[in-house]
Design brief:
Order of helices and strands of chain B: EEEHEEHEHHHEHEHEEHEHEEHEH
CATH topology of the largest domain in chain B: Rossmann fold
Number of strands of chain B: 14
Order of helices and strands of chain A: HHHHHHHHHHH
Largest interface: A-B, 41 and 44 residues
Shape of chain A: globular
Radius of gyration of chain A: 24 Å
Helix content of chain B: 25-40%
Structural class of chain A: mainly alpha
CATH class of the largest domain in chain B: Alpha Beta
Strand order of the largest sheet of chain B: 6-7-8-3-9-10
Number of domains of chain B: 2
Number of helices of chain B: 11
Oligomer: heterodimer
Number of domains of chain A: 1
Strand content of chain A: under 5%
CATH superfamily of the largest domain in chain B: P-loop containing nucleotide triphosphate hydrolases
Chain lengths: 309, 308
Amino acid sequence: MSSPSEAPSGTAAAGRPAGVIHDLGYRPYGGPRLGEGPVAWSFFLTGLRNTYGLGRSGRSKVLPMGLLGLMLLPALILVGVLVQARDVLDLDSQIVSYSTYPITTQLLISVFVAAQAPALISRDLRFRTITLYLARPMRRPVYVLVRLASLATGTFILIGSPLLLMYVGGLLADLPVGRETTRFLGGIVGALLLAALLAGLAALVAALTTRRGMAVAAVTVVLLVSYTVVSAIQGIALGTGNDTVGEVAGLFSPYTLVNGVQHYLFGVEAATATPPEGAGMGLLYLLVTVLTVLASIGALIARYRRVSP
Amino acid sequence: MIETAGLTKRYPSVTALDDLDVTVGEGVTGLVGANGAGKSTLIKILLGLVDATSGTARVLEHDVATEGAAIRALVGYMPEHDCLPADVSASDFVVHMGQMSGLPYASARERAADVLRHVGLAEERYRPMGGYSTGMKQRAKLAQSLVHDPRLVLLDEPTNGLDPSSRDDMLALVQKVGHEFGIAVLVTSHLLGELERVSDHVVVLDSGRLLRSSATTEFLHATGSLVVEVQGQPDAERLLGQALVAAGLTARPAGGGQIEVVVKDEHTPDVVRDLTADLGLGLVRMQERHQRIEDVFREGGAGSVLPV
């Protein structure tokens, strides 16, 4: 803060009495000006803080913090059971696997993404704050990528932190360290892929609508409905013996898609009725995942090219 | 500070700027024109946000077409429309915007506190901006344009939507930025009287063309006549007018109970005073008549420019 002892130097006000703290005159800034990298980094951090409501009004913290708590609660209970009752129940692995946990909690994750993507993306468009960002040195694609990175990282923290809790719990319960670490890292890779997928899709939907309520509803519908429909089709496919139909259907929801990729890459137990079988289908799952992420980034950049300042 | 040459911007249906040559220097420069005259388009081109159809523009020695980022680092911009997120406090927001302009966090905090004090946002700076009045929002918008200590600020209609007293405050701030802070200002308005008061230089745009560009003092030279207001009788100004004409002076009614008297020599004011006394009238006012900017526009034919 300004203090009276710091006399204004080199300003028009230098000649005036500086006895009053409220009238120091204007002080020019002579310090360093950072380049694109540090600016993008601080933009990323602010965006990440904003996804959890930090630096925003008290009300905006309730939902993301509440969801993070709800995400951690089942993991905490599972860890408690694992540590306390391992011998009684004769457990030698996690009660719920790392790759299954995000599917079990998919409702919470979807709500988080649906609520926070508009808070980060639509907000700049609705209040036209985007103009102020564009009037600063940062380039448009950088703006888009950093916003997306903030959202994806926020989502990754939501998906990844219960997995970390389970991993720590697993070590405390003396599960084999090597096997547990491998499974945990597989789970983290899955969490990363899922976060990137969800953030990309949600950001794209949010960028296409400036009305926050609309964006929340649209993202919720896309994520929840797609998962419900896909798991229904997979159930029917399994029941009628048409496994291939179910495997193809699995490509159309981020949750089943990422679970399939994990099943293919790490051979983990599948959480869906019809996981991808065979290398061809597995590769297709991986390819669709990567392409979806890239396509949503490309579409977002194209969308922002048309934003008028 | 700013130089444009042959600057033209055509949209499919409308020509926003037409072969514009403008030079803007230090101090406060007013950019006047009716809504749609091309003011905002010019500002967006100067920031490198919109490409010109043809012609060139240089801001602070940088070409707008190729060095937009360098310009945006040195220039502050206050848009005409709302641009403040509702759920962030002015304090947090201005700090953030300072960082976005490349200031380290500690410097951004210090600068934000400084500029918020200068624009006159006190305790309310810690409240979410969604609850601000229009006047407070305009102050916050001005603060974010100054936080990185730019060399030039582009203020697009800063008095828009303000009541008369807030408008006076905002104009005083604009003048302070231009003259005390040493930051060059380009300020737009469709209200002439405002710019007359705060600008050193006025640029007039009409339908994307340059109508006039000159120092404000040139607009305001004395016209060589006096405005006289008298009272005492129902037709006091008519009586005085007749007496003045009889005394060999040129006088005409100026409306609102006032008479405009052409100054013949240094005795003219004395003659007016004596005649008023002789007629038993009270002299309410006698002052030199200055030409106002709006008169120039009437002569220039910019009928669409609104006087205050």
